[in-house]
Amino acid sequence: MEAPKFNKTNAKIVTLAHGGGGKAMRDLIQDVFIRDFFTEDTGEMEDQARLEIPPELSGARLAFTSDGFVVDPLFFNGGDIGKLAVYGTVNDLAVGGAIPKWLSASFIIEEGLEVETLRKIAASMRDAALKAGVKIVTGDTKVVARGAADKVFITTSGIGLIPNGVNLAASKVQEGDVAIVNGFLGHHGAAILQARGDLMLEGEIKSDCAPLGDLMAVAMAAGVVRCARDLTRGGLASALNEIADACGHVIELEEVKMPLKPEIRGFCEILGFDPLYLANEGSLVLFVPQQDAENVLAAMRGHEFGKDACIIGKAKLGNRPQVEMKTAFGGTRIVDMLVGEQLPRIC
Length: 347
Prior knowledge:
The chain is of the alpha+beta class. The protein folds into two domains: 16-162, CATH 3.30.1330.10; 170-334, PurM-like C-terminal domain (Phosphoribosyl-aminoimidazole Synthetase, Chain A, domain 2). The protein has eight helices and 13 strands. The longest helix is centred in the middle third of the chain and has 18 residues, at 115-132. It is globular. The two termini are 35 Å apart.
C-alpha cells in the first residue's frame, strides 16, 4: 500500500492542544509517529489494525504482552526510551517461544516536551522495529499538563505467533537441566545510573539493549529449550527465583561462571550493589536438557547477541525451591528474590 501524504507540524514544543483531538493533534501524530511507523499492515488508518496471519504459520497460537516504559533519562549510552519500548516488548514475546510480529505504542506526553525529542524517539522506535522484525501498527497519544508526567511515558503491547509444537514454560524445567545465559550481566542498570550523572564514575558503561527474537529461534532450532526469561527488572536472581518456584527445583549457580565484566564488578563493589539483581535489556536465561546444552551453546555463540553465551548452573532436587550460589571459596549462599528495587525508573 502506498503511504498517504502527511501533514507537517510547525510546533517546537508539545502543548495541550496537541491532545485535544483537533488539527494540531492530527498533524503531530501524522508528522512524528505515522510517518515513521507506517507499513502496509497499518491499513486504512482506521481505529484498529487489521492483521493477516502468514499462511506458513496458520494454526499458530497467539502470544500477547503489554508493558510500560518510564526510563529516566530518556536517552542513555546504548539506547533510549523508544528503543527500550520496542525491544522490551519483543523480548517478552520471544522468551515464550513466539515469533514477534506486531506492536502497538501509546504515548503519554508532558506539555512542554520538545517536538524534536519526540522525533528522535519515533525514529529510534522505527529503526528498532526494523531490526527486531516487527511492525508498529497502531497506537495512541495523550498530552498531560506540566508536572503530570515526566517528559514522556510509553506503553506498548505486542502480538507474536507461537508455532505448532512450541510450548515453553518454567514448570517444565527438570532435574539436571542446564542454565545458559547469552552474555554479560548488569549493563543496563549500570548504564542508566551513570547516565543520570549523580556519580562521577570513570569509563563508559553501555546498555545491553537488544532484540532477542532471532537468538531464541536459533537456540530452539539447535535443541530442546524448556523455558526462557529475559533478565529485566530484578535481574538474573529474580528471574531464576521465579523459575525455581514454578518447577519446584533448586537452581544451583556457580559464582566463578557468572559472566561479569570488570567494569560492572567495580561498579557494584563501589556502590554496594549485587550484580545478579541489576537489570538487563538484552540478556536472557534459558534451560535446556544436559544432552542438548553444547549444541544450544554453540548455536547461540554463533549469533550476534549470543557470542558470549555460557553455562552458569543447573536445576537439581532439593527440600524446597530456591536459588543457591556455590561461591568461589567453596561455600554456598542463598540468592533470594529482590525486595523492592535497587534502581528506580530503569525501564
